[in-house]
Amino acid sequence: MSKLQRKIYSYSFLVPAAIVYIIIFIVPTFLSFFFSLTRWTLSDWEYIGLDNFITFFKEPYLSIGFRNTFIYAVVTCGLKVVLGLLLGVLLTGALRIKNYLRSVVFFPTLVSTIAVGITFSVMMHPTTGLINETLSFFGIKGPDWLGNPSIALLSVAMVDVWKGVGFATVIYIAGIMSIPEQYYEALQIDGGGSWHKFWHIILPLSRPATNSVIILAFIGGLRSFDLIWAMTKGGPGFSTDVIASIIYKQYQAGFYGLSTAGNVILFLFVSLLAFPLSRFLTRKEVDL
Amino acid sequence: MSRKGRLLTIEIVSVALSIILFWVPLYFVILTALKNPQEAARMNLDWPTEIRLWQNIKEVFVFRDYMLVRAFWNSTLLTVLSIVVLTVVSSMAAFVMQRRQDKASPWISFFVLAGLIIPPAVVPTIWVLNGLGLFKTMTGLVLVEVALGFPFCVMLYRGFMGTIPKDIDEAAVVDGYGGYRLFFQIIFPLLKPVTSTIIVTQAVVIFNDFVNPLYFLPGSKNVTLQLTLYNFTSQFISKWNLLFTDILLITIPPLILFIFFNKRIVAGMVAGSVKG
Amino acid sequence: MQRKSIGMILACLLLLAGLLSACGGNNNGNSGGSTSGTNGASEGSSAEKKEKVKLSLLVDNSQDSINIGEALSKAFTEKNPHIEIELETRPQGTEGDNFVKTRLATGDMNDVFFYNSGSLLQALNPEQNLLDLSGEAFLDNLLESYLPVVSSGGKVFGVPFRSSVAGGWFYNKKIYEEHGLSVPKTWDELMANLDKLKGTGVAPIIGSYKDTWTSQLIVLADYYNVQQAEPNFANDYTANKAKYATTPAALRSFQKLGETVGYYNEDLLATTYDTALAMLAEGKGAHYPMLSFAVPVIEQNFPDLIDDIGFFAQPGDDPNKVGLTVWMPDSAYISANTKHPEEAKQFLAFIASVEGAEIISGVTTPSGPFVVKGAELPDDVPQVVKDMMPYFNAEGQTSPALEFLSPVKGPMLEQLTVEVGAGMRSPEDAAALYDQDVAKQAMQLGLEGW
């Protein structure tokens, strides 16, 4: 690179962003490794070694937290990929009402998570909620969506998908629309049907979109907190607790060191799953 | 079945599904906001005997010394300030990151992209902000929103920047432009499509943000809309009409944004994310 | 060229700084605006030569606390026109605990704040964060039994801003009459009453586990019975010698909760505190284990139905040893960082006076006796409060709840009691997990012997 170019593309452009990003994000991330080893009141700390981690792993509900975090991420991510792809294909096709459907599907992504959480928890009320009232009209006794510990997490995950599928759909629409015309023309010459078109052109060529959706939705799922907190606060009992909600509870209790240890664990958990996943996906992309 | 018939079937089914899945919840929210407390408590879709939306709106606004007005102001301030800072700093950073390749580049990219994956360390951030005197201040929260939104915006900007030919830069340099003049007078205007995508998506994210105000801006003087909504759930107990009026009011700003920028969003995504 | 780029950097930084200071300045602008308002408002008292002082008071956002806070502030400012009090509210429950802790830890607590007494106070690190009131004359107005719950390390930190609160069982008298039931003297009699109500269309017990804190009541209100069997439990518990899981009398509290499984309303997990009170008043449920601070709420929302509500202490196994578990009043504290310690103390002295207590009973129904000497309950308190008085008036028929006798209380109890009450976990298991949770709390507080 020439000297002139170095001058034009000066690193001074990075300075404002770097100041904010380093102070507010990078520094606290590194500090968290230290503070997770302390008993901490914000004003002073006492080094206690790995005690916080031991306590955290002894938490009887932590294993539930790990399992729930993983299930939640996989379920929401999987459904968003499948439904997003289907909707993406449908909404780039010949439907006359596709603009209407695009708007409708995308709208929930713009509504506040808390508002969505409150609305759905009211609709999922076991006796007076809209969903079960409707079911009982057809003679079906609906379950206690958020109160039954074995389905509460899935109920929240469904609402998450309802809210987030619009975003996945838009990514897929963008991906499918950027597939060059000549592929379809070639298909017409070969005489393949629409199933053929989906399987041999759209699916492989929207691969980058799939990767974006998987990574964004999976990481989002692993870190999710606000919808769960607005709908169940981790309950009943601990049955919808995820790592992020456990961290928040420790923070609420004033156990700052312990909460930070939880943060470090989440950090490792997310990194161990997300970095290899993204590497795996991008390598596949290159092979294609 | 004929091709046309099949198309029509799909259309009818998808409209029916869209009504059940999307319009009914929205209708439920609006309807409950029209009702009186007793009817709202029944949580059903019956048409109210009296429509008292206006009275409900007034009650929600007056509640707790006009807390909602304060919250609207705070949320707007937070969103606008964060967006301005965010677009400026991340487009600048993306410019150099996309254009310049040297030994430091992979490291910079790594640290920025790590921000997309790593969950923020909350309590240490509080500690740092408190040390700087920024905890519980709007400034502090704006900085947090900027730091957390930065990686995503850089990614979009960088993707789009790749579509702007380098020839433009070279021509500008020949004309005697410096780096900053080149960027602000030529490149930044060319980024307009992706800038508007970022403004819309990030405005919605920040406006709807619940977690960061919860952690970094506690206190009833500086509540944001999402926090009022969350707190109202414990205070409006048995006044579902007011709670849903609040939900309705909070949904209006994103709705307006949506109506104006609906097309832009998809266009911007096509331009930015996938190519990036 | 070089100069230009530096200029641009500066411009950018200035832009940034300008934006930031714009919003910083805004905050100042707000507070500036309100102080000028103060001066205008208190013009009438220009005869006062004392310097104007503004205290800020933090209360939780329940209507009751706000009413009390407003009434006390108003009456106090009338007597001391140079001191104005500004009210700020915070969330309730664990969210509120967190709010208070964060404010104290970051050194910007309001001058005066209302908060729980007992173990929750101990978790605030009072000796470091709160103003010591020891030796103040107004403490002499308070009952001896109250002072320990606002003390730490021999220093006193708070004064009561409410009456004391009883924990036990509310019941609907109409339902009791209709089914020919009588107030149970033992746990077995209570269970028999519940059995008679099963299948009658009313919920034998109302549960409101959507508000998780309400699920703890049966365990916590059983403490009188624990203390009867194990008088030393609180001390041994604090010293890490006694455990819930291994002390039969204490484990019994969890088991009692376990025995109530199946007697609750069907939508137990989706019901809120507020809905539960409505169900009790309207006769959709027969019993509601709750703290007596629910009385003013019921009276406010259902003034016609308040006389249908009665109250009894949670019974033990011996009909001759029935007694009440009592929650000491929440208290007002002064932050150690206050700039106006003298004025804040004046305010606390006012709260702790008979006059203060009268103002409090003027805006809210007392939920039990006051701990201010000479402060009497008004004669027109509803019957449900009168139901509690025999326990208070007799010798040895009350015991403070455990959280006022021991600083250790685990934060996880409410989730565990939800699980037990909803039949998701056995009482024995929950008691053992709670012991672990308590150990965690003691460790985080750095208590001796854990």
TrEMBL record, chain A:
UniProt key word Transport: yes
InterPro entries: ABC_transporter_permease, MetI-like, MetI-like_sf
Classification via Pfam families: BPD_transp_1
Protein keywords: Cell membrane, Membrane, Transmembrane, Transmembrane helix, Transport
Residue intervals passing through the bilayer: 12-35, 70-92, 104-124, 151-174, 251-275
Tagged with keyword Ion transport: no
Domain of life: Bacteria
Subcellular location field: Cell membrane
Membrane topology of the entry: Multi-pass membrane protein
Domain ABC transmembrane type-1: 66-277
Family designation: Belongs to the binding-protein-dependent transport system permease family.
Identification of the protein by name: Binding-protein-dependent transport systems inner membrane component
Designated gene of the protein: txxe 929
Automatic annotation (TrEMBL), chain B:
Stretches that traverse the bilayer: 12-34, 71-95, 107-129, 141-161, 182-207, 240-261
Chief site of localization: membrane
Biological process according to GO: transmembrane transport
Compartment(s) of residence: Cell membrane
Membrane topology: Multi-pass membrane protein
Pfam assignment, any one: BPD_transp_1
Domain (ABC transmembrane type-1): residue spans on this chain: 72-261
Entry-linked CDD domains: TM_PBP2
Record's keyword terms, sorted: Cell membrane, Membrane, Sugar transport, Transmembrane, Transmembrane helix, Transport
PROSITE patterns found in the cross-reference section: ABC_TM1 (PS50928)
Cellular component, GO annotation: plasma membrane
Superkingdom of the source species: Bacteria
Gene3D superfamilies: MetI-like
Family of the protein in this entry: Belongs to the binding-protein-dependent transport system permease family.
UniProt-recorded name of the protein: ABC-type sugar transport system, permease component
TrEMBL record, chain C:
Alphabetized Pfam families for the sequence: SBP_bac_1 (PF01547)
InterPro entries hit by this protein: Bact_solute-bd_prot1 (IPR050490), SBP (IPR006059)
Signal among keywords: yes
Signal peptide start-end: 1-22
Source organism superkingdom: Bacteria
Residues in coiled coil: none
Gene3D superfamilies, per the entry: Periplasmic binding protein-like II
Alphabetical keyword list: Signal, Transport
SUPFAM superfamilies: Periplasmic binding protein-like II
Family matches, as PANTHER family: ARABINOSE-BINDING PROTEIN-RELATED, OSMOPROTECTIVE COMPOUNDS-BINDING PROTEIN GGTB
Family assignment from sequence similarity: Belongs to the bacterial solute-binding protein 1 family.
Name this protein carries in UniProt: Extracellular solute-binding protein family 1 ABC transporter
Organism listed in the record: Thermobacillus xylanilyticus
Gene that this polypeptide is encoded by: txxe930
